[in-house]
TrEMBL record:
Pathway: Cell wall biogenesis; peptidoglycan biosynthesis. Its main location: membrane. One of its GO terms (molecular function) is lipid-linked peptidoglycan transporter activity. Involved in peptidoglycan biosynthesis. Transports lipid-linked peptidoglycan precursors from the inner to the outer leaflet of the cytoplasmic membrane. It comes from Gluconobacter albidus. GO terms for biological process: cell wall organization; lipid translocation; peptidoglycan biosynthetic process; regulation of cell shape. PANTHER family: LIPID II FLIPPASE MURJ. This is Probable lipid II flippase MurJ. One of its GO terms (cellular component) is plasma membrane.
Length: 518
């Protein structure tokens, strides 16, 4: 599991870094204004459906069923099931895409309550360009699920890097050649869907498990898939739905607020995507096998170790982003049309998002335990409850707190969601925190707090007013503070005997020696 976790995490990290570069270029050319707001609404629509119908609900229902058939019945029955699933998914999404293209003004009105005039018209035009991406990337997510079920995590994780590579090229071409950044970038989104689907299908073909399109039929397998998928639509995608609610409320705030929220969320998504997605992706097939073999001890151990691995990196990321929020946003985005004032406001949003980072990540770690058991009803009930809570908190907070209200509402909802998932899994005997996890979690938290104190003191003494520094000096000082914080954290972990540096060095040297002898 750890090897698969690191494989997916490494490729996801590369994708997120390239995504950060893409967002930096986007911020420089569009800033935080009406065109950026409209473009982000157009991007949110297909991404929301992708999370729900692709990476969320469909994978949560499809991967356990595919893995179970592959393990118990063999490759051919599993491949037939995958072909039926792909055919049904693509037909449904094609119909949805056609309807959305026709009624796009109504769709945009729902997602962007506060949009009007040119902002609304631009959002409708861009959304019609980007919406087909949803169908393509959902098909890619299913093929990715096949590869993950086979234990082939590298190809599936690597394919998503192309979204940001094509996105960067499209923004640059749009700004420097065609002088229409938003429209060309929107076309780049859809083109990236074509490339991702093609790359993943080719990888499945090479593995001998490429699904074939057939006329969809309501077989017993498909009916079982639909029963599982329906509840999982909210259960696995509740985080994305909450973020969409944040975007809806943000359109009621001053122009530029959706952009400010978006860039803060993108920084928060860097550790969330790397850690949460990697842990959830690697954990789901593993838990499915353990539950199929009725090995409860292995289930407990896998969940505990996954939480351990994620907390080791999530807690310092959370505290680090809270301490350095404004310098991070200024150093990364305060160029071109994105001002320092925009960066400071976005940094305040980042602090509110970062506070909930452990909860956001643990939701992705705990949810697979339900999905592996075939239970998609319980997460959806919790999802509905926390969706309602998030909407209520948004409505209560957005007027008194302004731009900080939506991210803080999402953080509160995430902690409630995570707590309910953990309590129910504990009652079912699927998650029991072992003494090793409890002791290490406390020491990890202590090391993260120690790191934060040293970094905060260093910034105050060595870099007062850091967000307003000149670009190169600002970025250099930020990197110095981050590296210093990492060193303090690692040294403290070693002192608290959480991670012994000597043992890590020995294990690394042993791995190098094994590779040399092959």
């Amino acid at each position: 599991m750890l090897r698969n976790f690191l494989t997916v995490g490494s490729w996801t990290m590369l994708s997120r870094v390239l995504g950060l570069v893409r967002d930096q270029i986007l911020a420089a050319f569009l800033g935080a204004g009406p065109v950026q707001d409209a473009y982000l609404i157009a991007l949110r629509l297909p991404n929301m459906f992708r999370r729900l119908f692709g990476e969320g609900a469909f994978n949560a229902a499809f991967v356990p069923m595919f893995t179970e058939r592959y393990e118990t019945k063999g490759p051919q029955p599993a491949l037939r099931f995958a072909g039926q699933a792909l055919s049904g998914l693509m037909l449904w999404l094609a119909l949805l895409t056609v309807l959305a293209e026709i009624f796009m003004p109504l769709v945009v009105s729902f997602v962007g309550w506060g949009l009007s005039g040119t902002r609304f018209e631009t959002a409708v035009h861009l959304s019609r360009i980007t919406f087909p991406y949803m169908m393509l990337i959902c098909g890619a997510a299913l093929v990715s699920g096949i590869l993950n079920g086979l234990g082939r995590f590298t190809a599936a994780a690597a394919a998503y890097v192309t979204f940001n590579i094509i996105g960067i090229a499209a923004i640059l071409l749009g700004a420097l050649v065609w002088h229409n950044t938003a429209v060309v970038s929107a076309w780049g989104v859809t083109l990236s869907g074509v490339v991702q689907f093609g790359a993943l299908y080719w990888a499945a073909h090479r593995a001998g498990m490429a699904p074939h399109l057939t006329w969809p039929s309501l077989s017993a397998d498909m009916r079982a898939l639909m029963r599982r998928m329906g509840p999982a639509l909210v259960g696995s995608g509740v985080t994305q739905i909450n973020l969409t609610v944040d975007m809806i409320i943000a359109t009621k705030l001053p122009v530029g607020t959706p952009s400010i929220l978006y860039f803060a969320d993108r920084i928060n998504q860097l550790p969330l995507g790397v850690l949460g997605s990697a842990a959830g992706t690697a954990l789901l097939p593993l838990l499915t096998r353990h539950i199929a073999n009725n090995d409860r001890a292995a289930v407990h151990s896998s969940v505990n170790r996954a939480i351990d691995y994620t907390l080791l990196l999530t807690l310092p990321a959370m505290i680090g982003m809270m301490v350095l929020a404004s310098p991070i946003m200024a150093a990364l985005f305060s160029y071109g049309h994105f001002t320092v004032a925009d960066a400071i406001l976005s940094g305040q949003c980042l602090q509110a998002y970062a506070l909930g980072l452990p909860a956001f990540v643990l939701i992705k770690v705990l949810s697979p335990a339900f999905f592996a058991e075939g239970d998609t009803v319980t997460p959806v009930r919790i999802g509905f409850f926390t969706l309602g809570l998030n909407l209520i908190m948004n409505l209560l907070l957005y007027r008194p707190l302004g731009h900080i209200g939506p991210p803080l509402a999402s953080t509160i909802a995430a902690f409630v969601n995570c707590t309910l998932l953990a309590v129910i899994l504990h009652r079912r005997g699927l998650f029991i925190a072992d003494p090793l996890l409890k002791g290490r979690a406390l020491r990890i938290a202590g090391a993260a707090v120690m790191m934060a104190l040293w970094v905060a003191a260093s910034e105050k003494l060595a870099a007062p007013g850091l967000p307003f520094w000149h670009g190169a000096w600002r970025f250099g000082m930020l990197m110095a503070l981050i590296v210093f914080g990492m060193l303090v954290y690692v040294i403290t972990l070693d002192a608290l005997k959480v991670v012994r540096l000597r043992d890590v060095a020995v294990a690394f040297q042993s791995r190098l020696n094994r590779r040399r002898t092959r």
